[in-house]
C-alpha cells in the first residue's frame, strides 16, 4: 500500500490567459496536516478544486490511497471520502442550515409505508448534535440568508463533518472567524488529525501553519517552489519563499495630526432584521487625519454599526453627521456622493457584481459621472482605461485583464478590486470592514500602507476589524464594542492589547 493517501503528480491547469498550476507535484501522508501556502492567485484553490472534482487537470495524475483516480465531480470526490470547506460559500441562501448540510444525502422515511419524504426532524437533530459536539453551534432551522458570514462559515465546516470524510480540505477556513473561534477551530483540526483524518489546509496565515501543520507546500504564480517541514522554517522564511522577496514587517506610521470632525455619530440605535436592538446608544467622532478602530468579537453589532453609517441599514434613532451635515436618512448614493467610501465585510454579496467583468466593477461608483458617460451613453473606452490604471496600481491579478469576470478571480484579488475602487473615490471618510480578510501577507502589508496613506492625506478612517493585532498596529483611537454597546473609547497608545481584549470579552466596563 502507498505511503501517501493523496498524490497529485505533474498537475497542470490552464485558464484563458493564465496557467493556474504549472507541473505541480504534492504527496500527502495519511494522518498529517499538509498546508498549502501562496499569494492570492498563486493556484492553491485551483489545485485543491481538482482534488475535489470541481475541475479536471489538463495534464497530470491524481492517486488516492495508491490508486489512480479521475475525479469527475464533487460527488465522485465525496465517494472517495474527500470533503472540502470552500473559501467562497457553496450554500443555497433560501434553504435552512440543515437543508444545506444534508443536501444530496437527505435522511428519508416513508409515509403510510410507501410515500417517500425527507426526514428533516432527524436531520435537524443530527446537525444540532454535531454542531454542539464541535463547538460550532448553529440553529439548524435558520435560513442561510439570515446568517452573518461567520455563521455561514460554520455551516460549510459542518457540511464536511456531517459526511464523515477522511481527507479534509480546508480552503481559508479561518478567514471570517474571530481569534477565539480560530483557536478553537485549530484545536478541532488537530483533533481530527489525531483521530486519523488527513488535513489539507490552505491559509495565508503563517502562524496557523506553524501552529498546526506538519509540512507545507509553497506555490508562487502557479509553480511549486518548495515543500518544507514547518518545524524547520520560520514564518519569515515561508513568507519570503511565497512572494520571492523580503516582506517589510514593520509598519511605518508617523504621529497622527487630527483635523476637523468628519464623522459624528450620536446616540445611535439600530435593529437587525428580527427587530432586535444590535447597536445601543453609541456615540463617537472621527476626525480627519485619524484612524478610529472598532474592536470587538464577531456578532457584537460592529457590522450593523458600519452598515447604518453607510446607509445600508435603517437607523432606529440617533444621528449620523458627515462634515456637520445630518445624513441619517440619506440614501446610499447620496452618502457616496457626499463623501463616504465603504469596504464591506461581505465582498461577494455586497461589494461586487460577481458576473460583471473587472472594468465594470472598478467603475461601478463612476459610471454616471460625465467622463464615463454622456447623455446616458456609456463611454466603454474610459471604463477600459480606468480599469487598466487600477489593475496596475493595486496589483490586481486576473487571467484576462479588465475583461476578466470577477467571479472567476481569487478571493484576495476580489478584495483588492473593492479596496482600489473605494480608495480612488477620494472621499473624506473611508469605512474599512475586515479589509485584509483572505489576503496574503504581502497584500496585507500593502493595504495597511494604503490605509495609513489615506489618514496622512487628512482623510477620516473608520476601521472595523476582528484582528486585534491589526487594530493595535493601525489605530490612533480605539473603541471597543460589546453586546452592541461602546464600552470604551481611548487613545490607542494608552491601551494594551490585553486591556482591549478584556473589554472585547465584556470583562471591564467604563
Automatic annotation (TrEMBL):
It comes from the Bacteria. Keywords: ATP-binding, Nucleotide-binding. It comes from Miniphocaeibacter halophilus. This is ABC transporter ATP-binding protein.
Amino acid at each position: 500500500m502507498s505511503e501517501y493517501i493523496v498524490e497529485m503528480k505533474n498537475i497542470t491547469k490552464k485558464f484563458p490567459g493564465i496557467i493556474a498550476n504549472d507541473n505541480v507535484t504534492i504527496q500527502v501522508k495519511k494522518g498529517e496536516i499538509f498546508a498549502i501556502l501562496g499569494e492570492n492567485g498563486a493556484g492553491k484553490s485551483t489545485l485543491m478544486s481538482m482534488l475535489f472534482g470541481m475541475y479536471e487537470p489538463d495534464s497530470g495524475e491524481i492517486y488516492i490511497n495508491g490508486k489512480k483516480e479521475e475525479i469527475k465531480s464533487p460527488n465522485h470526490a465525496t465517494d472517495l471520502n474527500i470533503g472540502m470547506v470552500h473559501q467562497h460559500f457553496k450554500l443555497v441562501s433560501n434553504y435552512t442550515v440543515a437543508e444545506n448540510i444534508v443536501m444530496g444525502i437527505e435522511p428519508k422515511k416513508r409515509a403510510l409505508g410507501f410515500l417517500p419524504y425527507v426526514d428533516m426532524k432527524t436531520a435537524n437533530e443530527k446537525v444540532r448534535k454535531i454542531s454542539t459536539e464541535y463547538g460550532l453551534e448553529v440553529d439548524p432551522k435558520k435560513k442561510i440568508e439570515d446568517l452573518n458570514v461567520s455563521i455561514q462559515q460554520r455551516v460549510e465546516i459542518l457540511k464536511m463533518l456531517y459526511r464523515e470524510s477522511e481527507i479534509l480540505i480546508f480552503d481559508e477556513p479561518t478567514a471570517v472567524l474571530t481569534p477565539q473561534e480560530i483557536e478553537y477551530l485549530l484545536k478541532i483540526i488537530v483533533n481530527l488529525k489525531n483521530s486519523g483524518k488527513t488535513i489539507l489546509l490552505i491559509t495565508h496565515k503563517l502562524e496557523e501553519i506553524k501552529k498546526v501543520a506538519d509540512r507545507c507546500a509553497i506555490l508562487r504564480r502557479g509553480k511549486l517552489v518548495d515543500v518544507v517541514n514547518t518545524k524547520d522554517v520560520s514564518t519569515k522564511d515561508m513568507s519570503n519563499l511565497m512572494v520571492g522577496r523580503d516582506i517589510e514587517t514593520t509598519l511605518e506610521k508617523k504621529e497622527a495630526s487630527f483635523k476637523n470632525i468628519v464623522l459624528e455619530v450620536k446616540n445611535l440605535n439600530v435593529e437587525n432584521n428580527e427587530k432586535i436592538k444590535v447597536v445601543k446608544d453609541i456615540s463617537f467622532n472621527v476626525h480627519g487625519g485619524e484612524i478610529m478602530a472598532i474592536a470587538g468579537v464577531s456578532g457584537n453589532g460592529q457590522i450593523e454599526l458600519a452598515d447604518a453609517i453607510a446607509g445600508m441599514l435603517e437607523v432606529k434613532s440617533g444621528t449620523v453627521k458627515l462634515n456637520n451635515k445630518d445624513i441619517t436618512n440619506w440614501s446610499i448614493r447620496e452618502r457616496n456622493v457626499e463623501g463616504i467610501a465603504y469596504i464591506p465585510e461581505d465582498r461577494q454579496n455586497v461589494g461586487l457584481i460577481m458576473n460583471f467583468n473587472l472594468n465594470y466593477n472598478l467603475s461601478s461608483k463612476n459610471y454616471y459621472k460625465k467622463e464615463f458617460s454622456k447623455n446616458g451613453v456609456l463611454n466603454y473606452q474610459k471604463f477600459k482605461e480606468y480599469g487598466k490604471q487600477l489593475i496596475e496600481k493595486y496589483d490586481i491579478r486576473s487571467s484576462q485583464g479588465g475583461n476578466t469576470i470577477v467571479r472567476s478571480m481569487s478571493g484576495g484579488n476580489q478584495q483588492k478590486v473593492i479596496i482600489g475602487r473605494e480608495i480612488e473615490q477620494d472621499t473624506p471618510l473611508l469605512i474599512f470592514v475586515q479589509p485584509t480578510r483572505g489576503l496574503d501577507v504581502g497584500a496585507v502589508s500593502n493595504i495597511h500602507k494604503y490605509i495609513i496613506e489615506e489618514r496622512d492625506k487628512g482623510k477620516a478612517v473608520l476601521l472595523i476589524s476582528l484582528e486585534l493585532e491589526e487594530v493595535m498596529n493601525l489605530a490612533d483611537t480605539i473603541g471597543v464594542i460589546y453586546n452592541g454597546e461602546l464600552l470604551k473609547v481611548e487613545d490607542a497608545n494608552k491601551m494594551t492589547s490585553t486591556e482591549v481584549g478584556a473589554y472585547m470579552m465584556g470583562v471591564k466596563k467604563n
